Amino acid sequence: MKLLPILVIAACVVMVKAGTYTDRYDSMNVDDVIANKRLFIAYVKCILNKGRCTPEGKELKSHITEALQSGCDKCTDRQRRSIRKVIKHLIHKENNYWNQLVNMYDPNKMYSKMYERELGTI
């Protein structure tokens, strides 16, 4: 009988975890990726279907529309911080790629305007 409470707690942890995206790539250093223009552009081209994708790129690409539309509800805290950094960098330093991503994933600009207002002034 002592095992039952442990199983219930484990089941709850699994259910809560199922409500978020995988944290498998959360240890990736986004600052290093942003600082390496060649690597950063490779990820962007993957997401734009203009280049090959790493496993990380494929994972990101598979969730980008849902994350954009939901305000990243299923993202971990680390993923939210990383996404804010990347979007800020795109808006300020790689605006051409930002516009291409918006045209692909948010053609009606329903969600991207919010990010531009919030992160464009930072």
From TrEMBL:
Keyword Signal: yes
UniProt-listed Pfam families: OS-D
SUPFAM superfamilies associated with the record: Chemosensory protein Csp2
Keyword Signal: yes
Protein keywords: Signal
Signal peptide residue numbers: 1-18
Top-level taxon of origin: Eukaryota
UniProt name for this protein: Ejaculatory bulb-specific protein 3
Organism: Papilio xuthus
